[in-house]
Automatic annotation (TrEMBL):
Keywords: Heme, Iron, Metal-binding, Transport. This is Globin. It comes from the Eukaryota. GO terms for molecular function: heme binding; metal ion binding; oxygen binding; oxygen carrier activity. Gene3D superfamilies: Globins (1.10.490.10). Signal peptide: none annotated. It holds the Pfam family Bac_globin.
Length: 176
């Protein structure tokens, strides 16, 4: 499967092109410069507050059952800081490559989960103290997250066992 094909599949479900998704990583000043380390920590905290309080979709919360809330917040925070213009915190903890698809491959997630993830993230962005007044950064992040969530789902279908990064097996028993 080519990256071009995966980009098209992600576009088909997210409505965001690959090029549009990159806007968030190329903003000047960077999103990290706009909201800082604390801003990303607040975004991750807000997101996981929503996830862990999601009583309407227990199936969605179950996706996160292999880590604690604090572990999830820390990993996401580190990834956000590094991806959006800050220091390489994620690399320091997880290694050279982010490998988002491989790190999520042990969860058999699908489009339903991607849409739910994006919904929680969009609400967190909309209510974020600094992002709610920065339409350019907010919209760029929303595009990035929508595309990336659906890219992960599209690419997971083509993962080989030697590409897993977050576990050693795909959990075939759970489909989200």
């Amino acid at each position: 499967m080519s990256k071009h094909t995966l980009h098209r599949l992600a576009f088909d479900t997210s409505g965001v092109t690959y090029e549009e998704s990159l806007e968030a990583t190329n903003l000047q000043p960077s999103i990290y410069e706009r909201i800082g380390s604390d801003g990303f920590e607040n975004l991750s905290e807000s997101f996981y507050d929503r996830v862990f309080a999601d009583n309407e979709a227990q199936w969605f919360l179950n996706i996160f059952s292999s880590s604690t809330r604090q572990e999830a917040v820390e990993n996401q925070y580190r990834f956000f800081v590094q991806t959006f213009g800050g220091p390489d915190l994620y690399r320091q903890k997880k290694g050279k490559y982010t490998r988002l698809v491989g790190r999520h491959a042990n969860y058999n997630i699908g489009s339903k989960a991607a849409f739910r993830w994006v919904e929680h993230m969009h609400k967190s962005i909309d209510e974020h103290e600094k992002l709610k007044d920065d339409e350019i950064a907010s919209e760029a992040l929303k595009k990035y997250f929508a595309f990336t969530a659906h890219y992960i789902v599209a690419a997971m279908e083509y993962m080989r066992s030697d590409q897993l990064s977050g576990g050693t097996q795909i959990d075939a028993g759970r489909i989200w």
